[in-house]
Amino acid sequence: MKKVTCTAPVNIAVIKYWGKRNEDLILPINSSLSVTLHQDQLKTTTSAAASREFTEDRIWLNGKEDNINHPRLQSCLREIRRLARKRRNDAGEDTVSKMLAYKVHICSVNNFPTAAGLASSAAGYACLVYTLAKLYGVEGELSEIARQGSGSACRSMHGGFVQWIMGEREDGKDSLAQQVEPETHWPELRILILVASAEKKHVGSTAGMQTSVQTSPLLKIRAETVVPGRMKEMIEAIRERDFEAFGQLTMKDSNQFHATCLDTFPPIFYLNQVSQRIISLVHRYNAHYGQTKVAYSFDAGPNAVIFTLEPTVNEFVEVVKHCFPPETNGGPFLKGLPVIPAPLSQELLSAVETDSCPGGVRYIINTQPGPGPLQSEDLNLDLLGSDGMPKESV
Protein backbone atom coordinates (compact mmCIF):
# COMPACT_ATOMS: atom_id res chain seq x y z
CA MET A 1 0.00 0.00 0.00
CA LYS A 2 1.21 3.50 -0.87
CA LYS A 3 -0.13 6.34 1.26
CA VAL A 4 0.19 10.15 1.11
CA THR A 5 -1.13 12.91 3.40
CA CYS A 6 -1.34 16.59 2.41
CA THR A 7 -2.93 19.80 3.64
CA ALA A 8 -4.46 22.69 1.65
CA PRO A 9 -5.68 26.19 2.52
CA VAL A 10 -8.88 28.19 2.38
CA ASN A 11 -8.88 31.28 0.15
CA ILE A 12 -11.03 34.39 0.39
CA ALA A 13 -11.85 36.24 -2.83
CA VAL A 14 -11.46 40.02 -2.73
CA ILE A 15 -12.62 40.26 -6.36
CA LYS A 16 -15.47 37.76 -6.41
CA TYR A 17 -16.27 34.88 -8.78
CA TRP A 18 -20.00 34.35 -9.24
CA GLY A 19 -21.42 32.66 -12.31
CA LYS A 20 -20.24 30.09 -14.84
CA ARG A 21 -20.27 30.11 -18.62
CA ASN A 22 -19.74 26.33 -18.69
CA GLU A 23 -21.21 24.25 -15.84
CA ASP A 24 -19.36 21.00 -16.64
CA LEU A 25 -15.86 22.49 -16.89
CA ILE A 26 -16.60 25.20 -14.29
CA LEU A 27 -15.51 28.10 -16.48
CA PRO A 28 -16.29 31.48 -14.86
CA ILE A 29 -17.94 34.50 -16.45
CA ASN A 30 -15.24 36.74 -14.94
CA SER A 31 -11.74 36.56 -13.50
CA SER A 32 -11.26 36.75 -9.72
CA LEU A 33 -8.57 37.39 -7.12
CA SER A 34 -8.11 35.96 -3.65
CA VAL A 35 -5.95 35.86 -0.54
CA THR A 36 -4.84 32.41 0.62
CA LEU A 37 -5.28 32.04 4.41
CA HIS A 38 -2.68 30.42 6.64
CA GLN A 39 -3.03 26.70 7.25
CA ASP A 40 -2.05 27.07 10.90
CA GLN A 41 -5.61 28.36 11.39
CA LEU A 42 -7.74 26.96 8.53
CA LYS A 43 -7.01 23.91 6.43
CA THR A 44 -8.22 20.67 4.93
CA THR A 45 -6.16 17.54 5.61
CA THR A 46 -6.46 14.62 3.17
CA SER A 47 -4.90 11.15 3.19
CA ALA A 48 -5.05 8.94 0.10
CA ALA A 49 -3.90 5.34 -0.19
CA ALA A 50 -3.71 2.89 -3.07
CA SER A 51 -3.55 -0.87 -2.51
CA ARG A 52 -4.22 -4.10 -4.39
CA GLU A 53 -6.22 -5.16 -1.31
CA PHE A 54 -8.88 -2.49 -1.92
CA THR A 55 -11.92 -3.70 -3.86
CA GLU A 56 -13.36 -0.28 -4.75
CA ASP A 57 -12.60 3.45 -4.62
CA ARG A 58 -13.97 4.95 -1.38
CA ILE A 59 -14.02 8.38 0.30
CA TRP A 60 -14.74 9.61 3.83
CA LEU A 61 -15.41 13.30 4.54
CA ASN A 62 -15.35 14.67 8.08
CA GLY A 63 -15.92 11.25 9.63
CA LYS A 64 -18.63 9.93 7.30
CA GLU A 65 -18.38 7.88 4.13
CA ASP A 66 -19.44 9.94 1.12
CA ASN A 67 -20.40 9.21 -2.46
CA ILE A 68 -17.24 8.52 -4.48
CA ASN A 69 -19.31 8.69 -7.67
CA HIS A 70 -20.06 12.40 -7.32
CA PRO A 71 -19.41 13.78 -10.86
CA ARG A 72 -16.97 16.49 -9.77
CA LEU A 73 -15.02 14.11 -7.59
CA GLN A 74 -14.86 11.58 -10.41
CA SER A 75 -13.67 14.30 -12.77
CA CYS A 76 -10.67 15.07 -10.54
CA LEU A 77 -9.84 11.39 -10.00
CA ARG A 78 -10.13 10.63 -13.71
CA GLU A 79 -7.89 13.55 -14.73
CA ILE A 80 -5.12 12.67 -12.24
CA ARG A 81 -5.17 9.03 -13.36
CA ARG A 82 -5.08 10.14 -17.01
CA LEU A 83 -1.97 12.24 -16.38
CA ALA A 84 -0.40 9.38 -14.42
CA ARG A 85 -1.11 7.04 -17.33
CA LYS A 86 0.46 9.53 -19.74
CA ARG A 87 3.54 9.80 -17.53
CA ARG A 88 3.80 6.00 -17.35
CA ASN A 89 3.66 5.77 -21.14
CA ASP A 90 6.27 8.50 -21.53
CA ALA A 91 8.67 7.19 -18.88
CA GLY A 92 7.76 3.52 -18.73
CA GLU A 93 7.49 3.50 -14.93
CA ASP A 94 6.41 0.13 -13.48
CA THR A 95 5.39 1.54 -10.08
CA VAL A 96 2.86 3.85 -11.72
CA SER A 97 1.49 0.91 -13.74
CA LYS A 98 0.81 -1.03 -10.54
CA MET A 99 -0.74 2.00 -8.86
CA LEU A 100 -3.13 2.57 -11.77
CA ALA A 101 -4.44 -0.97 -11.33
CA TYR A 102 -5.20 -0.36 -7.63
CA LYS A 103 -8.29 1.22 -6.06
CA VAL A 104 -7.90 4.23 -3.75
CA HIS A 105 -9.20 5.12 -0.30
CA ILE A 106 -9.45 8.85 0.47
CA CYS A 107 -10.11 10.42 3.87
CA SER A 108 -10.49 14.17 4.35
CA VAL A 109 -11.23 16.47 7.31
CA ASN A 110 -11.65 20.24 7.71
CA ASN A 111 -10.66 22.06 10.90
CA PHE A 112 -13.42 24.64 10.28
CA PRO A 113 -17.22 24.58 9.60
CA THR A 114 -18.11 22.94 6.29
CA ALA A 115 -20.60 24.59 3.87
CA ALA A 116 -21.02 27.68 6.07
CA GLY A 117 -19.56 30.10 3.55
CA LEU A 118 -15.95 29.54 4.63
CA ALA A 119 -14.69 28.19 1.29
CA SER A 120 -14.66 24.56 2.44
CA SER A 121 -15.05 23.20 -1.09
CA ALA A 122 -12.06 25.26 -2.28
CA ALA A 123 -9.75 23.81 0.37
CA GLY A 124 -11.30 20.35 0.01
CA TYR A 125 -10.86 19.95 -3.74
CA ALA A 126 -7.45 21.63 -3.77
CA CYS A 127 -6.33 19.14 -1.12
CA LEU A 128 -7.88 16.19 -2.97
CA VAL A 129 -6.16 17.03 -6.26
CA TYR A 130 -2.80 17.81 -4.65
CA THR A 131 -2.85 14.60 -2.57
CA LEU A 132 -3.82 12.41 -5.53
CA ALA A 133 -1.12 14.07 -7.63
CA LYS A 134 1.49 13.21 -4.98
CA LEU A 135 0.13 9.65 -4.70
CA TYR A 136 0.39 9.05 -8.46
CA GLY A 137 3.57 11.08 -9.00
CA VAL A 138 1.83 13.66 -11.21
CA GLU A 139 3.54 17.05 -11.56
CA GLY A 140 2.88 20.32 -13.37
CA GLU A 141 -0.25 22.49 -13.72
CA LEU A 142 -2.91 21.23 -11.29
CA SER A 143 -5.17 24.28 -10.92
CA GLU A 144 -7.09 23.31 -14.07
CA ILE A 145 -7.98 19.96 -12.46
CA ALA A 146 -8.86 21.50 -9.08
CA ARG A 147 -11.14 23.97 -10.90
CA GLN A 148 -13.21 21.05 -12.20
CA GLY A 149 -13.94 20.04 -8.59
CA SER A 150 -14.81 23.51 -7.33
CA GLY A 151 -14.11 26.73 -9.20
CA SER A 152 -12.48 28.55 -6.31
CA ALA A 153 -10.35 25.46 -5.52
CA CYS A 154 -7.99 26.43 -8.34
CA ARG A 155 -7.00 29.53 -6.32
CA SER A 156 -6.18 27.36 -3.27
CA MET A 157 -3.45 25.64 -5.32
CA HIS A 158 -1.21 28.65 -4.61
CA GLY A 159 -0.21 30.63 -1.56
CA GLY A 160 -0.36 34.39 -1.01
CA PHE A 161 -2.32 36.49 -3.50
CA VAL A 162 -3.80 34.55 -6.41
CA GLN A 163 -5.71 35.45 -9.57
CA TRP A 164 -7.94 33.03 -11.43
CA ILE A 165 -7.80 34.04 -15.08
CA MET A 166 -11.18 33.29 -16.65
CA GLY A 167 -9.64 32.29 -19.99
CA GLU A 168 -11.28 32.32 -23.40
CA ARG A 169 -10.93 28.78 -24.74
CA GLU A 170 -13.99 26.55 -24.77
CA ASP A 171 -11.99 23.58 -23.45
CA GLY A 172 -10.91 25.58 -20.37
CA LYS A 173 -7.18 24.97 -20.86
CA ASP A 174 -6.45 28.67 -20.29
CA SER A 175 -8.74 29.06 -17.25
CA LEU A 176 -6.01 28.77 -14.63
CA ALA A 177 -4.88 30.19 -11.30
CA GLN A 178 -1.65 32.18 -11.03
CA GLN A 179 0.15 33.60 -8.01
CA VAL A 180 0.28 37.40 -8.08
CA GLU A 181 2.52 37.73 -5.01
CA PRO A 182 3.70 35.17 -2.40
CA GLU A 183 2.42 35.09 1.19
CA THR A 184 5.60 36.86 2.39
CA HIS A 185 4.85 39.94 0.23
CA TRP A 186 2.66 41.77 2.79
CA PRO A 187 3.72 40.56 6.25
CA GLU A 188 1.56 43.10 8.16
CA LEU A 189 -1.70 41.99 6.55
CA ARG A 190 -4.10 40.21 8.93
CA ILE A 191 -7.42 38.51 8.31
CA LEU A 192 -10.09 38.22 11.02
CA ILE A 193 -12.92 35.79 10.37
CA LEU A 194 -15.99 36.76 12.36
CA VAL A 195 -18.15 33.64 12.49
CA ALA A 196 -21.77 34.75 12.68
CA SER A 197 -23.15 31.31 11.81
CA ALA A 198 -21.62 27.88 11.41
CA GLU A 199 -24.82 26.45 9.92
CA LYS A 200 -25.08 25.13 6.38
CA LYS A 201 -26.29 27.90 4.08
CA HIS A 202 -29.83 27.75 2.68
CA VAL A 203 -28.84 28.25 -0.98
CA GLY A 204 -25.64 26.51 -2.09
CA SER A 205 -23.17 28.40 -4.28
CA THR A 206 -23.72 26.18 -7.33
CA ALA A 207 -27.51 26.63 -7.33
CA GLY A 208 -27.21 30.32 -6.48
CA MET A 209 -24.84 31.00 -9.37
CA GLN A 210 -27.07 29.24 -11.88
CA THR A 211 -30.08 31.33 -10.87
CA SER A 212 -28.05 34.56 -10.91
CA VAL A 213 -26.68 33.89 -14.41
CA GLN A 214 -30.21 33.21 -15.67
CA THR A 215 -31.99 36.15 -14.02
CA SER A 216 -29.64 38.99 -12.97
CA PRO A 217 -28.94 41.76 -15.53
CA LEU A 218 -26.59 43.33 -12.97
CA LEU A 219 -24.38 40.21 -12.95
CA LYS A 220 -23.79 40.50 -16.70
CA ILE A 221 -22.81 44.18 -16.41
CA ARG A 222 -20.52 43.37 -13.47
CA ALA A 223 -18.71 40.55 -15.32
CA GLU A 224 -18.24 42.42 -18.58
CA THR A 225 -17.61 46.03 -17.57
CA VAL A 226 -16.72 46.25 -13.86
CA VAL A 227 -14.50 43.30 -12.94
CA PRO A 228 -11.77 43.69 -15.64
CA GLY A 229 -10.86 47.17 -14.33
CA ARG A 230 -11.08 46.07 -10.72
CA MET A 231 -8.69 43.16 -11.33
CA LYS A 232 -6.01 45.61 -12.54
CA GLU A 233 -6.65 48.01 -9.65
CA MET A 234 -6.52 45.20 -7.07
CA ILE A 235 -3.26 43.73 -8.40
CA GLU A 236 -1.69 47.21 -8.29
CA ALA A 237 -2.96 47.82 -4.72
CA ILE A 238 -1.50 44.48 -3.57
CA ARG A 239 1.84 45.06 -5.29
CA GLU A 240 2.07 48.57 -3.76
CA ARG A 241 0.80 47.30 -0.38
CA ASP A 242 -1.71 50.17 -0.53
CA PHE A 243 -4.23 49.21 2.16
CA GLU A 244 -6.51 52.20 1.53
CA ALA A 245 -7.03 51.14 -2.11
CA PHE A 246 -7.08 47.41 -1.26
CA GLY A 247 -9.65 47.85 1.51
CA GLN A 248 -12.04 50.10 -0.37
CA LEU A 249 -11.99 47.89 -3.47
CA THR A 250 -12.52 44.76 -1.34
CA MET A 251 -15.62 46.25 0.30
CA LYS A 252 -17.07 47.62 -2.95
CA ASP A 253 -16.67 44.28 -4.66
CA SER A 254 -18.25 42.38 -1.77
CA ASN A 255 -21.19 44.79 -1.81
CA GLN A 256 -21.66 44.42 -5.55
CA PHE A 257 -21.55 40.63 -5.35
CA HIS A 258 -24.35 40.67 -2.77
CA ALA A 259 -26.22 43.24 -4.88
CA THR A 260 -26.22 40.70 -7.74
CA CYS A 261 -27.63 38.15 -5.29
CA LEU A 262 -30.47 40.58 -4.49
CA ASP A 263 -30.89 41.26 -8.23
CA THR A 264 -31.33 37.49 -8.75
CA PHE A 265 -34.94 36.32 -8.98
CA PRO A 266 -36.06 35.06 -6.55
CA PRO A 267 -33.48 37.04 -4.53
CA ILE A 268 -30.76 35.26 -2.55
CA PHE A 269 -29.97 36.48 0.98
CA TYR A 270 -26.57 35.33 2.21
CA LEU A 271 -26.12 38.18 4.71
CA ASN A 272 -28.09 38.23 7.95
CA GLN A 273 -28.70 40.98 10.52
CA VAL A 274 -25.36 40.35 12.21
CA SER A 275 -23.59 40.68 8.83
CA GLN A 276 -25.31 44.04 8.27
CA ARG A 277 -24.33 45.24 11.76
CA ILE A 278 -20.69 44.33 11.05
CA ILE A 279 -20.76 46.30 7.77
CA SER A 280 -22.13 49.33 9.62
CA LEU A 281 -19.55 48.94 12.39
CA VAL A 282 -16.64 48.86 9.90
CA HIS A 283 -17.80 52.06 8.22
CA ARG A 284 -18.26 53.86 11.58
CA TYR A 285 -14.82 52.70 12.75
CA ASN A 286 -13.14 53.93 9.55
CA ALA A 287 -15.07 57.22 9.67
CA HIS A 288 -13.79 57.81 13.22
CA TYR A 289 -10.20 57.60 11.97
CA GLY A 290 -10.84 59.30 8.62
CA GLN A 291 -9.16 56.44 6.74
CA THR A 292 -9.73 52.82 5.76
CA LYS A 293 -8.23 50.87 8.66
CA VAL A 294 -10.43 47.77 8.31
CA ALA A 295 -12.28 46.26 5.34
CA TYR A 296 -14.98 43.59 5.15
CA SER A 297 -15.70 40.92 2.60
CA PHE A 298 -18.54 38.38 2.63
CA ASP A 299 -18.64 35.26 0.49
CA ALA A 300 -21.84 33.24 -0.01
CA GLY A 301 -22.64 33.20 3.70
CA PRO A 302 -23.13 35.49 6.72
CA ASN A 303 -19.59 35.24 8.12
CA ALA A 304 -17.49 38.40 7.84
CA VAL A 305 -13.89 38.34 6.68
CA ILE A 306 -12.13 41.45 7.96
CA PHE A 307 -8.87 42.59 6.39
CA THR A 308 -6.65 44.92 8.40
CA LEU A 309 -3.02 45.59 9.27
CA GLU A 310 -1.35 44.06 12.30
CA PRO A 311 -1.26 47.24 14.47
CA THR A 312 -5.07 47.59 14.22
CA VAL A 313 -5.98 44.01 15.22
CA ASN A 314 -6.03 44.35 19.04
CA GLU A 315 -8.21 47.47 19.08
CA PHE A 316 -10.66 46.30 16.42
CA VAL A 317 -11.16 42.93 18.14
CA GLU A 318 -11.93 44.85 21.34
CA VAL A 319 -14.51 46.92 19.42
CA VAL A 320 -16.14 43.74 18.09
CA LYS A 321 -16.27 42.30 21.62
CA HIS A 322 -17.88 45.54 22.83
CA CYS A 323 -20.58 45.50 20.12
CA PHE A 324 -21.08 41.71 20.10
CA PRO A 325 -20.47 40.58 23.70
CA PRO A 326 -19.29 36.94 23.62
CA GLU A 327 -21.56 34.21 24.98
CA THR A 328 -19.84 32.65 27.98
CA ASN A 329 -21.18 29.12 27.48
CA GLY A 330 -19.36 28.38 24.21
CA GLY A 331 -15.72 27.57 23.43
CA PRO A 332 -12.94 30.17 23.18
CA PHE A 333 -14.03 33.44 21.54
CA LEU A 334 -10.60 34.12 20.04
CA LYS A 335 -8.77 31.53 17.97
CA GLY A 336 -5.62 31.61 15.86
CA LEU A 337 -2.89 34.22 16.18
CA PRO A 338 -2.71 35.85 19.63
CA VAL A 339 -4.72 39.01 20.35
CA ILE A 340 -3.83 41.31 23.25
CA PRO A 341 -6.58 43.24 25.15
CA ALA A 342 -6.56 46.92 24.18
CA PRO A 343 -8.10 49.99 25.84
CA LEU A 344 -10.87 51.82 23.93
CA SER A 345 -11.14 55.60 24.10
CA GLN A 346 -14.48 57.19 24.95
CA GLU A 347 -14.43 58.96 21.59
CA LEU A 348 -14.09 55.66 19.74
CA LEU A 349 -16.83 54.01 21.82
CA SER A 350 -19.16 56.93 21.02
CA ALA A 351 -18.31 56.64 17.30
CA VAL A 352 -19.15 52.91 17.09
CA GLU A 353 -21.96 52.88 19.66
CA THR A 354 -24.93 50.70 18.74
CA ASP A 355 -27.33 48.35 20.46
CA SER A 356 -25.17 45.47 21.63
CA CYS A 357 -25.87 42.10 20.06
CA PRO A 358 -24.75 39.41 22.55
CA GLY A 359 -23.60 36.21 20.86
CA GLY A 360 -24.02 37.69 17.36
CA VAL A 361 -20.39 36.86 16.62
CA ARG A 362 -19.80 33.32 17.87
CA TYR A 363 -16.01 33.46 17.64
CA ILE A 364 -13.14 35.16 15.80
CA ILE A 365 -10.27 33.46 13.95
CA ASN A 366 -7.17 35.66 13.60
CA THR A 367 -4.97 34.62 10.67
CA GLN A 368 -2.69 35.93 7.91
CA PRO A 369 -1.76 35.08 4.30
CA GLY A 370 -0.23 31.62 4.00
CA PRO A 371 1.26 29.04 1.62
CA GLY A 372 -0.44 26.74 -0.87
CA PRO A 373 -0.88 22.95 -0.44
CA LEU A 374 1.82 21.04 1.43
CA GLN A 375 2.75 17.37 1.71
CA SER A 376 3.02 16.22 5.32
CA GLU A 377 5.71 13.94 6.66
CA ASP A 378 4.06 13.87 10.11
CA LEU A 379 2.66 10.36 10.58
CA ASN A 380 0.34 11.72 13.31
CA LEU A 381 -1.57 13.58 10.61
CA ASP A 382 -2.34 10.39 8.65
CA LEU A 383 -6.10 9.88 8.55
CA LEU A 384 -5.90 6.30 7.24
CA GLY A 385 -4.60 3.41 9.31
CA SER A 386 -2.29 0.58 8.20
CA ASP A 387 -5.37 -1.24 6.85
CA GLY A 388 -6.28 1.72 4.62
CA MET A 389 -9.42 2.49 6.64
CA PRO A 390 -10.12 5.75 8.52
CA LYS A 391 -8.61 5.92 11.99
CA GLU A 392 -11.15 5.96 14.82
CA SER A 393 -10.31 9.56 15.78
CA VAL A 394 -11.26 10.89 12.31
- Sheet with most strands: strand arrangement: 8-7-9-6-1-17
* Shape descriptor: globular
What's the story with the biggest beta sheet? Answer: 6 strands, mixed
Unreliable stretches (pLDDT < 50, length at least 5) are none
Counting DSSP E segments of at least 2 residues, the number of strands comes to 17
Figure out the total of helices. Answer: 10
Order of helices and strands: EEEEEEEEHHEHHEEEHHHHEEHEHEE
- What structural class is derived from the secondary structure elements? alpha+beta
- Helical content, roughly? 25-40%
Radius of gyration: 21 Å
Quaternary structure state of the chains depicted: single chain
Distance between the termini: 20 Å
Would you write up a description of this structure?
- β15 (334-336), α10 and β16 form a beta-alpha-beta unit.
- The chain has helices at residues 71-91, 94-101, 120-136, 143-149, 205-215, 217-239, 243-263, 273-289, 313-323, 346-352, and strands spanning 2-9, 11-15, 20-22, 27-28, 32-36, 43-51, 58-61, 64-66, 103-110, 161-164, 177-181, 189-195, 294-297, 304-309, 334-336, 363-367, 374-375.
- The strands form four sheets. The protein has a six-stranded mixed sheet. A five-stranded mixed sheet has the order 13-14-12-16-15.
- It is α+β, with helices and mostly antiparallel strands.
- The chain contains ten helices and 17 strands.
- The model has no long low-confidence stretch (mean pLDDT 93).
